[in-house]
User: Fold these one by one.
Assistant:
Number 1:
Amino acid sequence: MMRAPLLRAVMNFLHNRGFQRTPEPLLKTLEIQKKLIDNTEPCIFDVGAHAGGIASLYRKYFPAARIHCFEPFADSFAILSKRFSADPLLSCHNIALSDKPGKALLNVNLSTGTNSFLDTDEMGHVFWGRGMLDTLSRVEVPKTTI
């Protein structure tokens, strides 16, 4: 049946361009953060920013925030930096954050939003869908510390 691979391809295409369904718990978390943070111009780090879905939500909830997006995967970084090129308060950094500077192997998965330095958990398909966490390649990326 071709339906599942086609659905995965469409979902991956949309997700990689920043279109995503925002889960209700995430929206509630942002509402709570908005109430707790009394600074009207916070500094926010979006680590593993992918295509900027979370950064765009933070921009909505914190319009005057300085946002730093860190995304080591070149394809996702290209989408991210283009998406926010007109936002002077948002900086994109093509590097991973870690406990030590250097280089690391990044697992590039079918759904690039799931790229990770960690191996895929055998139960990952329960949350992401079957096949979305399949590692297609590994690329070496630079990493630094905060």
Number 2:
Amino acid sequence: MSTLGVIQFLVCCLIAIWLYPGGTMVDETTMGFSATGNYLSDLGRDVSFSGQDNRLGSAFFNWSLTILGFSILPFFFFMPTQAVDRFGWLIATGILGGLSALALVVMGLSPINLYPMQHILALLFWMFTLFWASIVHGMAMLTSKVNPTWLSLLSIFVSVIAIWYMYFGMQTAMAVWFEQEIPLQAALLQKFLVILSMIWILSFSIKMLLTTDFSEFYKRKDTETEQYVSDLEQQLRT
């Protein structure tokens, strides 16, 4: 489900980019979608910066973003199956990742030109939770003795790009606020972060599907919990 969600989002993004009429926040005369001038959120505008109709493209982007958020929830729910010796860390990763997925849903349901405050707050929340989810996940998998994997480095890379994007994003916000020249790095880094996070989810989703018996994992966890409760009750009786 997570894999299909990522794929449909990437495909719909490409369609929305192709349909985008043009215009950026600093230049309304540009044609088409600009990699350095437009943010992905601009694809969700029903009217582009150039004043042209973008309802079809915005529908592709907004609904695909909403579907993506819901579709990757199972990925984070089953996150603890990746390394039993880092169960607690991966539970934390799953919670943070689940919150980041819900933030994507909010962004998809609140286009930036119609609900700017909700969209921006959801974007900030997505970046914050994604940063912590990826860094905790990376540390958990790097230190796991049961299931170590070089893919953990991808998690660390996601966290690095996330914090980098947040830094340039703040610079962009300040530039807009004080009417200064807007840096180009944030728009480029946003696209890089989104693509990288999609690769991260795809890579670990496929790995989980190929190597994990989900029902057996949680059955074993339930059995361990029941045994613990039983032992505790026995101790209390004595």
Number 3:
Amino acid sequence: MTKIYLIFGPQGSGKSTQAERIAEKLNLPYFNSGSKLREIAATGSELGNIVKEQMNSGRLIDSEIIDKVFEQYVTENNGASFVADGYPRLIEELDFTLELGKKYDWEILAVDIEICEETTLKRLDGRTTIVNGVEVKREDDTPEIIKKRLEAYHNETSPVVKALKDRGELIEIDGEPTKDEVTKAVFEALKI
């Protein structure tokens, strides 16, 4: 059975770092929805401009857009094992993921990295990303947008996390310690 690792956590939880470390440890491809969407936003295409506007507003990207990006990634990798960061974010996206899971016979392993809002705000101050090979401050990391994104995460993504917990497919990890301590806890919980 193919294992799919879904990594959750609010902004600043270190979910991308932990997802990358899981992917590296298991030698698996890594799907980062935020990076994929930032790549699309940077193209200046019609879709890129829509994605950029939605990201800068603090809203979640429309499901139709991210579902297509995710499905294209899965199809390109023939449904093989991978680590996903930042997807699914909504119950309907989880439903879409579970349908793909039936098609590809996936075993889903979800990890939720939990931190408090104060930690989120502290960690995101000055965060940067690489766009076209250049390090820049993320446009979507202003305090106002961060608060909107946290609200969206708690209102819209928390039900996904709860649904996975109810299915017995969720591991909860305290994200407050250092990156290496969190990694150790994640690896132990996943038995990798």
